[in-house]
Amino acid sequence: MEPVIKVTNVSKDYQSHQVLKNIDLTVNNNEIYGLLGPSGAGKTTLVKMIAGIETPTNGSISVLHSSMPSLNIMSQIGFMAQSDALYGELSGRENLEFFSAIYGLKGQKQKERIHQVSELVNLSKFLQKPVNQYSGGMKRRLSLAAALLHEPKILILDEPTVGIDPVLRQSIWDELYKLSKSGTTILVTTHVMDEAEKCGQLGMLRDGKLIASGTPQELKNVTSSASIEDAFLYYGGVQHEN
């Protein structure tokens, strides 16, 4: 398989605090790769560096065979941040028009993509409403729609389903599977164990370190665990006490 994201010996310091320590990570083409870890594990910092928004203190990051940060590569990434970067006084449609213009979409193509992504996240009926009248879950869905507008080769989603009801969460995951099959590489962060099970590959982060990686089944098999949660607890400390 062809690696499209390669993180090599990456560390990140903020002043005297080390947030990430010697991370090595490879994500292959068309893969759904999950980063699992509690709040404060370093997931958001890592995906921001992969997206080119932040730079590592040490080590290197390559995306689509180019060293990051690279403006050309950043335009081929769809990034959905943990906090919704939306304009509350604008309607849902106006937000999507604004973001699609940034991506260079105009005319009929712009209209088509706005229609497609709003259908995908089940927001078509609410596009005329100002975003400051949206619920938290609706804002998450609009943020996902915005990240998908330009049909990116790589989709980076930071806690994409926080505050979204279980039925819609499943439909979003169904769509992520379709995107993956059609050629999109997806990197998703989560602290939810059942979402981690849905990923093709999984990296477990704790205290800024990558403590394990593999398919969810491999991680369970190696640790003789019945669940990803048990495997995470094993890698996170139990094995070091023996």
UniProtKB/TrEMBL annotation:
Residues 5-232 form the ABC transporter domain. InterPro entries: AAA+_ATPase (IPR003593), ABC_transporter-like_ATP-bd (IPR003439), ABC_transporter-like_CS (IPR017871), P-loop_NTPase (IPR027417). One of its GO terms (molecular function) is ATP binding. PROSITE patterns: ABC_TRANSPORTER_1, ABC_TRANSPORTER_2. SMART domains: AAA. Keywords: ATP-binding, Nucleotide-binding. SUPFAM superfamilies: P-loop containing nucleoside triphosphate hydrolases (SSF52540). The keyword Hydrolase does not apply. This is ABC transporter ATP-binding protein.
